[in-house]
């Protein structure tokens, strides 16, 4: 299924192909503050529609993930593996997807704080 999403102001829009069967709620220091619900997909299934100047990147800790956000409205839209390669993943913030019934998506708790 094709899903469309964006940040609040719309400068960072994206499309992602896949089956949304669940999301992860992580309790690490950044995810707990953002309140994101993350859906892991192959990076090749994510198509970002944004000017490079509008898409910010935040790295912390071991710099394993690039946390991507809109430089205008500040909304975290997705994260992606920082390592190069074709088997990378993207982690979509499903709160940014259009027409999603969040209550119908199973959420799995992840203890990122312990990593």
UniProtKB/TrEMBL annotation:
Keyword Acyltransferase attributed: no
GO molecular function annotation: carbon-sulfur lyase activity; metal ion binding
Domain CENP-V/GFA: 3-111
Assigned keywords, A-Z: Metal-binding, Zinc
UniProt keyword annotation of Signal present: no
Matches recorded under Pfam families: GFA (PF04828)
InterPro entries in UniProt: CENP-V-like (IPR052355), CENP-V/GFA (IPR006913), Mss4-like_sf (IPR011057)
Family recorded in the similarity comment: Belongs to the Gfa family.
Protein name: Aldehyde-activating protein
Organism, as annotated: Inquilinus limosus
């Amino acid at each position: 299924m094709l899903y469309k999403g964006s940040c609040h102001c719309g400068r960072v829009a994206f499309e992602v192909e896949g089956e949304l069967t669940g999301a992860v709620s992580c309790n690490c220091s950044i995810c707990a503050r953002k309140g994101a619900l993350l859906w892991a997909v192959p990076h090749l299934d994510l198509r970002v529609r944004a000017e490079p100047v509008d898409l910010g990147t935040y790295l912390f800790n071991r710099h394993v993930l690039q946390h991507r956000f809109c430089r205008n409205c500040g909304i975290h839209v997705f994260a992606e593996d920082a390592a190069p390669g074709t088997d990378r993943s993207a982690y979509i913030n499903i709160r940014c997807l259009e027409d999603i019934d969040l209550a119908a998506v199973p959420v799995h708790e992840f203890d990122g704080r312990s990593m």
